[in-house]
Amino acid sequence: MRTLASILFTMAVLFSNAQLVSDQTNAIRLDFKQTENDKEIVLPTVQWEFPGREYTNSQERRAKFVAILESSKPIQLVEMGIGRKRGEKPLATKSFEVAKNTLRYKLEKEINLLDGENVISVTVTNVDGGVVTDYRNILVGFDAISKAIDINRRDYALLIGTDKYDHWNDLVNPVYDVETVSEILTDNYGFETEALTNPQQEDILIKIKEYSQKKYRPQDQLLIFIAGHGQFDEAFGEGYIVTKGSLQNDEAKTTYIPHSVLRNIVDNIPCEHILLVMDVCFSGTFDPVIARSRSAAYEDLDDAELLVRKLSKKTRRYLTSGGKEYVSDGVPGKHSPFAQKFIEVLKSRGGEDRIITLQEIYPVMQRLKTLPRTGEFGLNEKDSDFVFVVK
Q1: What interhelical angle do 259-267 and 201-212 show, nearest 10?
Q2: Cα–Cα distances in Å, from 29 out to 45, 111, 218?
Q3: Given 38, 141, 218, 346, which residue has the most CB atoms within 10 angstroms?
């Protein structure tokens, strides 16, 4: 238990030098204040540069905050506060000098944070009396984070399967695979799933864009599963997803979805934890160097600590059905070999701890005749993982 003296000392240095915080979901709180004449008031705006999202976790006890404050009426007052809960009086506040007739103010401040929950507030007041307050919540310290598995966290799955093609030979199992995986994820793991069957190129891109516009909490996860035809072009050195309307002899590959494009748009989805699973030919070329990831050793953690450890690292990982080669679609009604093995792992329900990680899935998948590939892409953090938690 911290003494009153130590808390007061911490408060004295709250607004001293600092460093880094991981970012998570953006939200704005407004305080409306009317004049005596009840005239319409123009409100200022707060645009955070760092951290970019409302809820963040950090094992560091120092953080730098950067926000752009703008108003069409001159800014009169800028205040920054730190507290424990929104709606309560901050434990400490600091006012910043603003030059006369300032319409745009860049606030930069390094703050020493307290263990546990920190609520950082920025309040901007203009000369018309328009007031805006915006917040950032920072949970600090591993002990605090280890107790903070968000009860509202959600797992999403977008499953895309194509077995009917306009210009390519039809397949027999992708839609069946997608429907089966979707059912298991929903029933056993509580995922919110959406299946896209036999989509055109634009349907896939529009749907992924929709997922990029969702608001995600820090511990939310997104699984994207794609099954169907794949193609590789030696001249371009690029792998492709073949969609329902893709031309078989498309020299420019404009009717396909390049792996490089898929990597970029998936990496930019504002979800901290993303796993991309592809059961298509040449899917291993999703990784430009076709490299396998190295599995990290497990620490002796309890279930809650394990989950939080996994959900505190930004995840950009993939699992594909092969490398630079064709892979089997399987026989009708039997699933593809890759999908069948993936489904078997999910049906195992994780054993005693009822948790399955990607690091547990990959060794099982290695039993397949065509060796699957796994690795990382985009802004993946070291020791990240994707977890399936039995509900």
Answers
A1: 20
A2: 10, 21, 19
A3: 218
